[in-house]
């Protein structure tokens, strides 16, 4: 009984002592610094949101830094880049040109350009055989890479530019508040979409009333408004950041993308997307991609490429529609009527 009474008294006294002096409740334990640091790093990757703090103030750990750069002081982080060509001398911040030109070579031929064109020596040449501009754009024009540029031109290889001035073009784009645009096409040459034809006596146009009636169920939606073709689009920095994320990694031809571009500007989209008529181009219709296809099952290389284009259009439309339905389903609201492509 004495032993039991002594034990109960000891436990009670210990509890009261611990409540009175919290610092004595848990004895100090000296753990290795590398173990504490491992615990801090592990908690960062756990499902439970918890603040991560460095256990040693002499070491850097900044959770708000980009992922993987937590050990760097924020002032040294360069999270964005550009494609400006840098000199070997002088001030590193100096570059002379307003534009950076990147040529994506479909045929693998790059050095031959330097022999014929002097300006070719001052541009960036990138070559992977039998790939398209959207394949290149997805891999080489990440928004953080082109963040220093106000506008991004993603143009086809068969465009005549004798009547085009880039500086004057951008002046019109800024004047009319266009986030996504393209130059007008020579009206003397067959155009797939009526809205892309160059018009006389206007600087910019944003709508089309002469398109086939079955194509224009809504005069404010593609292809009669809020529409440019994927042939020669020009994107503002903000619009491109959205469009880049919408480009699918495995769909390289970009068909159907032009009908969805309106998703990447603020409403009303038909006011932010338009055709610049004062600076125009000529579509020369050179089938450079079709000739690089492969004949299979009796289908010619060119037809095989075209079939793939249509297939990608259907796949892209389906992906956008399903993603939209899933989003609104998660909100428990009915999917609004917001068709992506032409029906």
Report what the structure shows.
The chain has 343 residues and is of the alpha/beta class. The chain has a domain of 185 residues. Helices cover 29% and strands 10% of the residues. The chain is built from eight helices and eight strands. Strands 3, 4, 5, 6, 7 and 8 form a six-stranded mixed sheet that branches. Strands 1-2 form a two-stranded parallel sheet. The radius of gyration is 30 Å and the shape is globular.
- Helix share of residues? 25-40%
- End-to-end gap: 91 Å
Rg over CA atoms, rounded to whole Å, is 30 Å
Instruction: Compute the number of strand runs.
Output: 8
What are the secondary-structure elements, in order, as H or E? HHEHEHEEHEEEHHEH
Percent of residues in β-strands: 5-15%
Provide the low-confidence segments as ranges.
Answer: 21-51
Query: Mind describing the biggest β-sheet?
Result: 6 strands, mixed
Helix/sheet category: alpha/beta
**Mean pLDDT figure:** 84
Oligomer: single chain
Number of helices: 8
Describe the global form.
globular
Pfam families: DUF707
């Amino acid at each position: 009984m004495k032993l039991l009474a002594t034990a109960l008294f000891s436990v009670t006294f210990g509890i009261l002592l611990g409540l009175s002096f919290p610092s004595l409740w848990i004895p100090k334990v000296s753990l290795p610094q590398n173990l504490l640091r491992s615990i801090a790093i592990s908690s960062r990757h756990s499902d439970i949101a918890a603040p991560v703090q460095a256990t040693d103030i002499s070491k850097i750990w900044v959770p708000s830094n980009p992922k993987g750069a937590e050990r760097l002081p924020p002032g040294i982080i360069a999270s964005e880049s550009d494609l400006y060509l840098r000199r070997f001398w002088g001030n590193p911040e100096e570059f002379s040109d307003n534009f950076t030109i990147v040529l994506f070579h479909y045929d693998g031929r790059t050095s031959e350009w330097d022999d014929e064109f002097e300006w070719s020596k001052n541009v960036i040449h990138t070559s992977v055989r039998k790939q398209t501009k959207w394949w290149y754009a997805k891999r080489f024009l990440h928004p953080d890479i082109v963040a220093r540029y106000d506008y991004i031109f993603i143009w086809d290889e068969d465009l005549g530019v004798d009547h085009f001035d880039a500086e004057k073009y951008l002046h019109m784009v800024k004047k009319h508040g266009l986030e996504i645009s393209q130059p007008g096409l020579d009206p003397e040459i067959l155009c797939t979409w009526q809205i892309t034809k160059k018009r006389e006596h206007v600087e910019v146009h944003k709508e089309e009333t002469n398109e086939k009636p079955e194509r224009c169920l809504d005069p404010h939606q593609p292809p009669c408004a809020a529409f440019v073709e994927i042939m020669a689009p020009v994107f503002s920095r903000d619009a491109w950041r959205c469009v880049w994320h919408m480009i699918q990694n495995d769909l390289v031809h970009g068909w159907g993308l032009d009908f969805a571009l309106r998703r990447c500007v603020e409403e009303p989209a038909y006011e932010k997307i338009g055709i610049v008529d004062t600076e125009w181009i000529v579509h020369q219709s050179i089938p450079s991609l079709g000739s690089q296809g492969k004949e299979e099952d009796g289908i010619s290389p060119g037809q095989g490429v075209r079939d793939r284009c249509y297939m990608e259009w259907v796949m892209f439309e389906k992906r956008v529609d399903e993603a939209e339905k899933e989003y609104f389903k998660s909100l428990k609201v009915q999917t609004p009527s917001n068709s992506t492509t032409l029906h």
